[in-house]
Design brief:
alpha/beta
């Protein structure tokens, strides 16, 4: 992602099927739409893929953006179901972990997921899921 007001960076290593997102600031309507567009573009480049989503220091995720995320997941399901293998969420704040767990309890995603407090656990689990799905994943912890 490009602008200095971006909600998150969206990256992947060379030839990697793992898209790595790192939140860098609180969401606004404009930067959240920009993030969803960048995520969609990254997924479009891949046949099968995984997502590691690191919330960084994010301490608040308002309902407005949870609803935007839910709508995006619903509208992209026909395109990404079967291709999106898994998502690992690195969430240091217990409250945000609870929000995500509640969101997914109410509306189960069409991919496997894990919520963890550490990047190391997210990468380890994601590599295991990719291997189980027959997709070669990098052995390092992705792009810098």
């Amino acid at each position: 992602m490009g602008s200095s007001n971006s909600y998150a960076t969206v990256r992947r290593g060379k030839d990697s099927p793992i898209v790595h997102v790192r939140v860098v600031r609180e969401p606004t309507e404009a930067n959240y739409v920009e993030y969803l567009d960048a995520l969609h573009a990254a997924f479009d480049e891949l046949d099968r893929f995984a997502l590691i989503f690191d919330t960084g220091t994010l301490s608040n995720f308002p309902a407005k953006y949870r609803e935007m995320q839910s709508r995006w997941l619903e509208t992209t399901q026909p395109e990404f179901e079967g291709r999106w293998i898994c998502s690992a969420f690195v969430i240091k704040h217990r409250l945000i972990r609870g929000v995500l767990m509640t969101m997914y309890w109410l509306n189960k995603p069409y991919y496997d997921y894990k919520v963890t407090a550490t990047n190391e656990e997210a990468w380890r689990w994601t590599r295991e899921q990719m291997k189980a799905a027959g997709v070669e994943a990098p052995t390092d912890d992705g792009p810098a």
